[in-house]
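WARN retry 2 of 3 for item q-0093 after timeout on previous attempt; input resubmitted unchanged.
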Amino acid sequence: MNNIFRRIILVFSLCFVVFSASTKNSKPFVVPELSAWEGSEGHFVPSGRIVVQSRNMQDIAQMFAQDYLAMFGKPLQIVKGKAAEGDFVFCSEDVADARKALGEEGYRLEISEKVIVTSATRKGAFWATRTILQLSEQSKIHQIPCGTATDIPAYPLRGLMLDCGRKYIPAKYIDKLVKVMAYYKLNALQIHLNDNGFKEYFDNDWQKTPGAFRLESEWFPGLAAVDGAYSKREFISIQENAEKVFVDIIPEIDVPAHSLAFSHYRPSLGSQEYGMDHLDLKNPEVLPFLDSLFTEYCGGPNPVFRGKYVHIGTDEYSNRDPEVVELFRGLTDYLIRKVESFGKQPMAWCSLKHAKGKTPVKVENVVMQMWSADYGDPIEMKKAGYNLVSVPDNYLYIVPAAGYYYDYFDDRLIYDSYTPAQMRAVRLEERDPQLLGGMFALWNDHCGNGITVKDIHHRLFPAIQTYAAKTWTADAVTFPWDIFDSQRKFLSEAPDVNELSRVFAPGIKGTVYCPLQKIGPETSIDWLAPEVGYDYSVTFTLHADAVERGDILFEGPTSRLYLSSPESGRLAFEREGYLNEFDYFVPKGRNVTLTICGTPHETRLYVDGNIRQVLYPLAVTCAIPRWGLHDVAPHPQGPRKMYYQRTLVFPLQKTGKFRGTIRGLNVSNLLPTTSMMLP
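OK item q-0093 returned
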C-alpha cells in the first residue's frame, strides 16, 4: 500500500513539474530574434511609468516614451525614485561589468512585475526599447511575457547600401528609412552619392546618359545634380537624425569608375579609352580634383561627413592596361590616406584581385567590402590584414525590375543559408574578429525605369527584417522560416512610420467603406490614410459633369489620379514625374463604376466590374548587349531590355479639381479573384 501511495505521489509530482515547466513562456517573437531567453511565468502589464535610475539614460527613456505614445496612443510618465509594479526601469549598473558582459550594443531585459533594462551604453538601452516596443505591439493590451532576455549582436556592423546616385532619394524618406532600420537594429546606412546610367539605353551617347552627384558643392559650383541633390545642411541633418537612433551614415563618393557625373562637369577628367564613366588616371588633373572633393566634405572644424566612416568607392575600374592598374592602386592608397588624415576610417569596394599589381595599398584600419570573387578574394584580404564587410552580390543585390540579380530579396534563401561569414563560395569562421558584419545593397541601375521611392521601400522593408535577423542573431536563429515569415507580417515598420501606406493594421485583411456618401471636388477626405499601398483595390462610382484635360480626381503625398490626362484626355496617373495613361476615356454625364487595383508590378483598371486594362511593365530595348565593359565576361548586367514600371500607390488625401461627384468609395487590401485576365 505504501508503495502504491508513493507511486501516486511520484506521478502527481512529475505531472506538477511538467505542468510548471509548460507554463513558462517560450521565447517571444521579435526581429531580430533574441540571442538568449529564459522564460518564466505570467505577463508584465504596464503601469504607465518609466523609472530612470541612471542619468545618462534620460534621453533614451524620453525617446521610448515618445515612440510608445506614437505607436499605442498611451503616454508614459518619466519619474525618479523607487520602481513599482508595472514600471519600465532603466537601472544603474556597474558600467565596467555590464560592458564586459554585454559589449557596446548588448542589453539585458528582466521582465517580471517590472521591466528592468540593463546595458553598458545608451545604444544598448535603445536597442532594448526596440525589443520592448515589438513585444508590446503584439498584444492588444501591450502586455509582455515574463522572462529574462540577454541580447548581444553577433556582428558590430549591420546595414544596407542605398544607391542615391542613379535615383535621387529625398532626405525626408531617408530619415524614415533610418527609423525603420533602427527598429530592427540595423546600424549602418551607406549612401552611394554618385553614379550613372548605362549608355546602351541612351543611344550609346555619354552626353545623353544620366550621371549625377547628389551633394551640394561650394568648391565646384554646378556639380550637384539639378534633378535632385542634398544641400550640405540637409545632409548634415540626415546624419544628425540618424545619430539619435544609433545608425551610422556612411557617405560614399564612388571613383574612379561610375564617375560620369564628374566628367559631365569637367569633360577633361573622363577617359576616352575606357569610357567617360571612368576618370582618366593618366590625366594629372584627376588627383587634385578628387583631393579637393574629399577635402571639401571631410575637412574643417564642422565637416559635412560627420561619422566614423567615409567610403572612397574604387569599384569596377578596367584592368586592361597594367600601367593603369598601378595608377588605380596608387589612387586607392592615396584616397585611403586622405580620408584617414581627417580622422575617418576609410571603406572601399574591394577590387585588389581585379587590380592585381605591385603598388602597395594601405591595410591597417581599412575596411573592404567583399562583393564579388572576380574583384576581391576574402581569404587573401583577411590574410593581408583588412577588416571585411560581407556584401556578396549573388545573395544581397537588389536591382529593382532589372531582370538580373534580385528584384526582391530571396528572403528564404537568406534566412536559411546566409550569414555575414558567407561570401559567395568562401565561408569564413563565424564571428571572425576581422569580419565586421554585412550589408545588403539596393542598386538603381536602370535610370528612368519608372521605379518610385514607394517601390524601393516595398523591396527594402522585408529585406530589412530578414537581414536584421541574419546579422544580429546570425547562425543562431531558432525560429523556422515559416514561423519567421508569418509572424513578422504583424510587426510595424517603425514608430510613426507607414511608408508601405497600410490602411489596416499589419497582417490584417479587409475592406472599408468611406463614411462620406457623396464627395465633391477639392475635398479633404481625411479617412484611413493619405494613400494606399500594395496590394489594394479602390472602387468608386463617378459622375463627371464635364471632362477637361488636366482634371484631377484624387491627390496624395506622392501621386495623383487624373480624370483626364493633361496629354491625351485619358484616365491616367502620375507619380514622381512619370505619367501613365489607361486606354480609357471617362464618359461625361453618366455614372461609371471604376475599380483600380495596384500591385508591386502592375496597375489594373476595371470599368463597371469588367477588366478594361492591365498596365504591365513595358520592355524598352537597348542599343547593344552589355558584355565585357569591365573586362570580365559575361557581366551579370547583360539583358538587352529595360523594364519600365507602371505601378501606383493610390492617392487618397483629397479630391482634385474636377466637375462632378464621387460616391461609394471603398478601399480593400483584397484583390479581385475573378476577371483577372484580359479578354
